[in-house]
Amino acid sequence: MIRSDQMDRRFIEEVMAEPGGEHLLTCWSCGTCAATCLVRRFNPAFNPRLILHKAGLGLREAVLSSAEIWACSACDTCYPRCPQGIHISQVMRAIRNVAIRAGYEAPGPTAQVDANRCSGCAVCTRICPYEAIERASQNIDGQERVIARVDRNLCQACGLCVAACPSGAMSLEALNDAELLTRMAAGGWLEHAGFLQGASTTPRLLAFVCQWSVRAEDEWQRIQALNDEHLRVVILPCSGRVEPAHILLALSKGVDGVLVMGCHEGACHYQRGTYLGRGKVALLNEMMAQMGIVRERVRFVESSALERRIFEERLALMREAILALRPALEIPAR
Amino acid sequence: MNKINLAAYWASSCGGCDIAIVELGEHLLELAQVADIVFWPAATDFKYADVEAMADGFIDLTLFNGAIRTEEDVHIAHLLRQKSKVLIAFGSCAMEGCIPGLSNLVGPERALRRAALETPSTDNPEGVLPQGHFEIPEGALTLPRLCGTLRTLEQVVPVDFKIPGCPPNHDQVWNALQAYLAGHLPKNGLLGVDPRTVCDQCPRVREGKIRVKQFQRPHEVIADPERCFLEQGLICAGPATHAGCGALCVKANMPCRGCYGPPDGVTDQGAALLDAIVASFDGQSDAEVRQIVGTIIDPIGTFYRFSLANSLLQKARALASQGDDPCASQAATEGETL
């Protein structure tokens, strides 16, 4: 129930005064945004229509204290579909700006900078799809240095900067290299020779799967159940988070093939992450070819939340491709 | 104070690392007060037999430069390890393979043919290849045989410390020697470096948001001397390279080549640089991304210019092609014929 004494006209004005918040009151509450929202598919509590509606009614407390205002990841899937042309992620950002001024904080983890390791090289400021990282002069142990600084309000915890940082200065809780490495290697999975070394009759494959490219719960359950001695699935927040060093480590340990599954072109939840994942795999493929390693052993494949059983199909194709490699490498069976 | 016994050696190297020691200049006089040079082929006339005659651990400190490419390199690496209390991989070749390590792309036979027969500056009309054994009236001449794979010093014998650089900056060589003499030795084993990466010492302006649609090579453009190379579409290894040189190349308007090796905590420099370079791609479709990748000529020579022999990429191949390196086995003398 909404009580009129909770409605605060000044809150509406405050949001509308923020850049991007101007269109708050043009919302019809039709719900098209909620119907297309990618976040909503895995966080059902998030409903952009309701947030805009409540904000439009001036329900200051209800809006600012809700965890959902921080959940929009600005993928802008809803923007071209909104009949009123409202740039909803911008309105969300305006609301969050008001929240931050009122002392609220984003509930989730955001990227952190290790000042002692950061060289201010600007790799992270270039990769961030949200312009959430700036370089700023800071006094570190009495020395004035320009280093990266993360805006907690803008960071969407996609982990792209953590992958990109060449100094290991960027970190993000569960998405750090060490954590991903643990997931790859758990149970000594990496410590086995593979098919191409003649130690296994089935190819051993490692798969990095973007969490947004598979959405339905039954799909996830089925994919997780595929984990065995010949397959290790590591879930990433985005295919752009994949580390070429992890792929190479796997190959150097005897893994036969590495699959990176990300979203279709234009469907990346983090705007450009899928292009970064593709770029890394494409460049790595070029180096593998130069090095005389069959490039088919590392592949980028795409999937979307609406597709079914794509993962298994791609996996089967990769297995076939690797089974066909053996004669080419002339590796005698042991 | 007792003087220490100091040795320096060149395995497969260009000689630049020995120049870096000579470049200590007047510090050499200070060094002579605290150290006796007991072996240094580039500058003194001691023979291998002199080293073989030394007691184990006789040498306090050996600065070993050059990669391990021949049987002779393997032999001397083992010998100096045995005779030295502290063995330092000195310079990029000994530490990570450096430019000679790129020959691992094609193997020793192909590299030898290229060097002896094909380069534009080669004048060899009779097509003579170096022979392992050659009889002349005065007796037999021999050359050491090449290993199947060029290796770093640490891939052959245990190493105590490393000093990166191609060659190491002479100021850093002096810093490293002083640190050794004072007993201030780093836990991570890296001497003669500064904290963080080359970007930390680079004076160029980084706008911070500029992404690029293509990469060019330094000879194709005249770079703006004030702006970040990456933001001009020139691949610069600075973000993935340990600081220590004082950003010498970038101050001479040349992108960092990466000779100081990976930053602390990074094992594969090429992979780290790949991540950093892809970060600056301005591609909004699969086709555009592939197009940008296509503008990167010779990615291994660019990303692994100095570190291929020590890379995960090379390890991955070694596994796929099943050890083809006779020098890697115990029977180091069974090297491939020249």
- Which strand-content bin applies to the residues of chain A? 5-15%
Which fold name is given in CATH as the topology of the largest domain in chain B? Rossmann fold
First-residue to last-residue Cα separation of chain B: 48 Å
Query: What does the average pLDDT of chain A come to?
Result: 91
Counting DSSP E segments of at least 2 residues, the number of strands of chain A comes to 8
User: CATH class of the largest domain in chain A, please?
Assistant: Alpha Beta
CATH architecture of the largest domain in chain A: 3-Layer(aba) Sandwich
Tell me, briefly, the overall form of chain A.
globular
Can you write the helix and strand succession of chain B as a string? EHHEHEEHEHHHEEEEHHHHHH
SSE layout and pairings?
The complex is a heterodimer of chains A (334) and B (338).
Chain A: H1 9-17, H2 32-36, H3 38-42, H4 48-56, H5 60-64, H6 88-101, E1 112-113, H7 123-127, E2 133-140, E3 143-150, H8 160-164, E4 170-171, H9 177-185, E5 205-210, H10 217-225, E6 231-236, H11 244-252, E7 257-263, H12 273-291, E8 298-303, H13 310-323, H14 326-329
Parallel strand pairs in A: 5-6, 5-7, 7-8
Antiparallel strand pairs in A: 1-4, 2-3
Chain B: E1 4-10, H1 16-22, H2 27-34, E2 35-39, H3 48-53, E3 59-65, E4 68-70, H4 71-83, E5 84-90, H5 92-96, H6 98-101, H7 108-118, E6 133-136, E7 139-142, E8 146-151, E9 161-163, H8 170-182, H9 248-251, H10 269-278, H11 286-294, H12 299-303, H13 312-321
Parallel strand pairs in B: 1-2, 1-3, 3-5, 5-9
Antiparallel strand pairs in B: 4-8, 6-7
Q: What features would you highlight for this structure?
A:
heterodimer; A: 334 residues; alpha/beta; Fumarate Reductase Iron-sulfur Protein, Chain B, domain 2; Alpha-Beta Plaits; Rossmann fold; 3 domains; 4-stranded parallel sheet; two-stranded antiparallel ribbon; 14 helices; 36% helix; disordered C terminus; B: 338 residues; 2 domains; 5-stranded parallel sheet; 9 strands; 31% helix
